[in-house]
Specification:
By secondary structure, this protein is α/β, with parallel strands linked by helices. It folds into two domains: 2-63, Alpha-Beta Plaits (2-Layer Sandwich); 74-333, TIM Barrel (Alpha-Beta Barrel). It is 32% helix and 18% strand. The chain has eleven helices and 14 strands. The strands form three sheets. Strands 7-8-9-10-11-12-13-14 form an eight-stranded parallel β-barrel, surrounded by five helices. A four-stranded antiparallel β-sheet has the order 2-3-1-4. α6 crosses α7 (215-227). The chain binds phosphoenolpyruvate (PEP) and manganese (II) ion.
Amino acid sequence: MIIVMQLNATDAQINGVVSEIRKAGLKEHISRGSELVIIGAIGDENKLEPAHLEILPGVERATRVTKQYKIVARDSHPAGSIVKVRGIPIGGNQIQIIAGPCSVETQEQMNLSADAVAAAGCRMMRGGAFKPRTSPYAFQGLGVEGLEYFQQAAKRHNLPIVTELMDVRMLDTFMEYDVDVIQIGARNMQNFDLLKEVGRVNKPVILKRGLSATIAEWLMAAEYIAAGGNHNIIFCERGIRTFETTYRNVLDVTAIPVLKRETHLPVIVDPSHSGGKAWMVPALSQAAIAAGADGLLVEMHPNPCDAWCDADQALTPEELKKLTVTLGAIAGAIGRSI
Ligand code: PEP
Ligand code: MN
């Protein structure tokens, strides 16, 4: 930890900081410049709290030098890790496109969706049975009945399913229905109790970025899951809220290389909730793959005009198929495959 003293800090104040550092079992290294004194606290800095030092007289600021996240940090696994979903790798050379409707509506809609997902060559399917809606009067998802329809449809093509868990009380049900990948939505990225619970199960988790979460907050949220023993975590950038109102969210492409550097875990992108319009999805998907994303989470509906949720952003089955072909060319150009 680095402690920067105020310009006029006295020797007594410097000694006060030094004694706190020693009390925590660390050693001090004092660097006296012509104007400022900077104190390095050497040792296990987790034993010191910056806020605890910042209230001492004469201290300007205290900053950690090591990262708070450990298990998810790339340092813990420099080669990068692959999360396997029923044998399908996420994070390796092959890029996975997870497609499907925003929400589960009917058995027929799910069957048609599964057919389209398989026809486009995608190996995994998405669909929400529990929907986080802004309005309490909007369709909230079919609930458990939706999980039933989803599994029935996905089984026809042996597609692993990805679905959102909003409430910790439904975790046992998710396990009973053998959900393959648990999605933690943007609105729950910092629902720490939910994160702790999914950290205890042996199921891959897609952790979406919070609406205005920083990269550090997102990594710490993943660390909550990892700390419970579940290291099968996939980050999903889904756009962040900014001053711009022309599109639903701003896809933070920069987050892709930054996360790939900070963590060994796979990083995927949701181009649908980023732009919020189907016509934006191809461009955002191409940018994501070119920037190094390990996969996509894309909304597709057999008949977008009839979608009960997020109709504007759903691709048609034909558009999904076309997209996978284009992305194959981009993947090839960067030495990967679809
Ligand atoms: C979703 O993927 O269906 C969803 C609700 O996304 P987000 O949590 O990113 O808003
Ligand atoms: Mn949606």
